[in-house]
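Board notes (copied after class):
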Amino acid sequence: MNLDIHRIYFFVPDMTSPSGGLRRLYRYAGYLKEAGYDVAMLYGDRSKGVYPFAAADIPSVFAPEMSAFDGKDVLIVPEVFGVLLPKLAALACRKVMISLSWDYVFNSLPENSVWTTFGIRNVLTTCSTIAGFIRLTMDLEPVIIRTSVNRELYYYDSQVKKNQICYTGRKDTDSGKIIKALHGNPRKFRMEGREVVCMNDLSEEKYAQTLRESRILLTTALKEGVHNPILESLAGGCQVVGYSGVSGREFCGGEARDKVNAALFEGGDYISVLRWFTEEHPARDLREQSAYIHRVYSVENERADILQYFAGFGVKRV
């Protein structure tokens, strides 16, 4: 534990529903709390309450009500808060940007500025795709915290598999058109007896159950950071077909290419996606696929990375 740190605050967006990114911030806070750090989740607006999955042992603090930061506090700032950086720059605490997406970085950043304009030198991220974007645009060297997949929720069970396709409505672009085409010519696209399930507005438990029951995940997201649906569906024993979302190539290429069942195409090319459905694609060993995802994207790796970063914070990185 780093005694040079008083308290670590995670600044969290006021959102009406949880996302993979928010869950990730709560996981990080949990790891640090278990290791003995004083942590808190910092909300901007008390009237919106806290997230339903908020850990009871991690305090929630509301920005308008808190006292001043001190010089040994650390504030973790997600990239979506770029618009606040001019105000945050004046705070006495040390700041760490955390970028869970490359696409959101410049959405709210003031014109003619980058993070270093406001004194940011420390950056965390979750994959090589985002890290490369930060190097390119900010001239900063991010530290990558390896991501994890919950093995208690996302696992392969051959006994519950159905002849089913599932897709995520969030960030989806073309699944509606693809499914309409598949149903329009069911014999050609091998859709006879096959169900299609949209995973909008599901609890994480129900979402994970749907992946375990499905044989195929259809994904048409165009701009992903860590492509959670791909990793979670592979762990759940699905074949994945759709768009790479840019970062999907990182998780399904290279060493993983021969270990996972994934057919990813250029964003917008649903002609190739439809053509995939005209042929039979026997899945390689789904049990080993799930085990591979659990090995590479383990909670142990994620915990080790975040603890190692803060153990050296203020010593190796200022």
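Comment from the instructor: The chain has a mean pLDDT of 90. The two ends are 17 Å apart (CA to CA).
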